[in-house]
Amino acid sequence: MLMAAIHPAQFADSIEQYNWAHSLEWGYWKHPPLPTWMMRGAIAVMGASHWTAPALAAACLAASAWLMWDLGCMLLGERAARLAIVLWPLHGALMWRADVFNHNTVLVLLATAMAWSAVRAWRSGALRDWLLFGVASGLALLTKYQALVTLLGVIVALGASGSLREARTARGVCAAVLLALAMFMPHALWALEHELPTLRYLDHSAPVLTYAERVPAVLRFFAAQLGLLVSILLAAAAARYWPAQASACAPEDQPIAEASAWMFGLVVVPLVAVAATVIVGGHTPQKMWGLHTTLFLPLWLAWTIARARPSGALASHAAVAGALLVAASATYAVFDVQQAKTTPRHTADRVVPASQLAHAVLDDWQQVTDCPLRFVSGTGFAAGLVSVYSGLYPAVLEENFDKSPWIDPTELRARGSVDIHGPMPAADVPDNVHSMEVPAPAKFNGPAAIWWHVVPPARACDAQAAQVPVKP
Predict the structure, then answer these.
(1) Are 65 and 94 in contact (CB under 8 A)?
(2) Which of 30, 51, 121, 393 lies most in the core, judged by the most C-beta atoms within 10 Å?
(3) Are 314 and 183 found together in one domain?
(4) Looking at per-residue confidence, does 403 or 8 come out higher?
């Protein structure tokens, strides 16, 4: 929530959830539907404001933390679970964009829920717990196909521990997988009907590499992940080697023997899956893959530390972790956000003056017509900013009707719209349009701007229709 408070805008991933939430579909042009359904539910409860996405993100992370804690308790013991939760907030890939609500945010929650429910079922052997694992897996697949990696990791862990040789466990896993596939089937049929748009997006966002490029790409990917994990690795090193007085409590029993199988399934399998995706499949690795790939790293670090120092006090470890977290947050607030306003960065989404932009667009609309603004079209990010920060939440047409099939072209023409584009290089802004200079991403090599023009309604509107004012 700190990040949301200091950002004048939001990342494009959060904005697209607002855009899609105008209609409940079995899929959207980039991703499966569950996160958008969650956004739709949140809007129904708390309205469409710039706080909706950060609130959902915070709720997902809070629930993930509890599940990670309970998973650690069941699998590794209470002390290792405490260490894992001390380390967890320092996971750079997890926290650096903690205010973003997107498919990765929901996958963090549901991948953790998959591991938690699988261990719960493995311990109890009850069919109801295996079905709970199936529900978590189905929901995760309706979030992002990358959930298959966690499912594979769970099956590998069960196999490595010898549990799959037990008939009851094998029946439970089969029941869970069948339930997950049944939940996923409506989206799969939707994807086939629409010519697999989510896979086409993957091909577009992660193009195929030549054979010579693949191993260097894997090495660069893991090097980037190490950079994001500096804080958690420093805290883990301090917990392992920092001199500390032993606690008064007796050490816990050593973790269960099968814990090593689960650590292999949850930590090693995702690393191997990413390497195989790049080396065998040839896809360019994306930075956001690291979030899911290293999700359970805090558990492994905590398990390693707890085995090496079974009775060490936690207070000093928590203090070191807290200091690193405060330092990282201050660095983010002071350097990353403030410098992004003046220094070109990889992305400038979060520092676009969204409220100022929404005011300017609405002023121009109201100079043309007294009708309420019902539609914004054009670039999804810019149009979504106007929709969310205007206080009106008009529907967004993302470039074409294939991406926003719930919008009726006849209704769009009748009610009019604001057509808005950018950010783009300021030199490319056409003549005779309204525009605003915005912070530029590094790829533009110069100033950036967003431009728009009003498309008036084709028919008269109700003269009594009140335009909802924008709150300052």
Answers:
(1) no
(2) 121
(3) yes
(4) 403
